[in-house]
Amino acid sequence: RKEVEQDPGPFNVPEGATVAFNCTYSNSASQSFFWYRQDCRKEPKLLMSVYSSGNEDGRFTAQLNRASQYISLLIRDSKLSDSATYLCVVIRSNFGNEKLTFGTGTRLTIIP
Amino acid sequence: DGGITQSPKYLFRKEGQNVTLSCEQNLNHDAMYWYRQDPGQGLRLIYYSQIVNDFQKGDIAEGYSVSREKKESFPLTVTSAQKNPTAFYLCATWGGNTIYFGEGSWLTVV
User: Which of A8, A38, B17, B95 is deepest in the core (most CB within 10 A)?
Assistant: First the structure.
């Protein structure tokens, strides 16, 4: 089983729709979680951190469910500019070595 | 400004040649990472280092080598043993509970 698994996509949704992605992780010792956005042929950029209490940044909401070992990202009122690939990242510390593991990414296309 | 500098941005290699990708950071971060990304795929970990003169293999280390002689520098060598090296390579650091990326290097075998 992969350490981090992500909805494969692609997701093609109309402008204004709400879309949600999930990402599951296999190691319960994982400590930190993030969502990154990657535009075509560019490096990933931080979208938001993910906490158990949930966090919201404008139209974006991220949630962590430690019991079921998944994180989620919700995008409301989607815009054309939201078209990108969304990567989840799971951080696990092992004797001082912090391993950053990425999901395969979910490609989102917002349709006018 | 603090950040990560990767070079070169584009690199062409003939089969059988070794090439080295540079990654320099001025963020004073201990942890540095190299990832490979193939078209339409996620990031796969090649090597990572938490401290000078020490590094660990990631999930796809075969055909690659690294060194960490200075805290600021973590170069990646793609050796001739890597049979399919054409990909996008990303260097990253971890510090202050944040991942920082370089702009990436595109390697093409010709």
Answer: A38
Q: CB distance from A20 to chain B under 8 Å? A: no
Which chain A positions have a beta carbon within 8 Å of B44's beta carbon? 102
**Angstrom distance (rounded) from CA B57 to CA B63:** 11
Q: Is A55 on the interface with B (CB under 8 A)?
A: no
CA distances from B62 to B13, B65, B68, B79, B80 (A): 18, 8, 18, 9, 11
Place A75 in a pLDDT band, splitting at 50, 70 and 90.
very high
Q: What does pLDDT average to over chain B? A: 93
pLDDT at A72 (0 to 100): 95
Rounded to 5 degrees, what are φ and ψ at B100? Answer: -115, 135
Pick among B10, B43, B50 to test the A interface (most A CBs inside 10 A): B43
| A34, A103, A105: residue with CB nearest B99 | A34
pLDDT for the residue B2: 66
Contact A88, A71 (CB under 8 A): yes
Token output for A3: 């350490």
- pLDDT digits 0-9 by tens, B14-29: 888 999 999 999 999 9
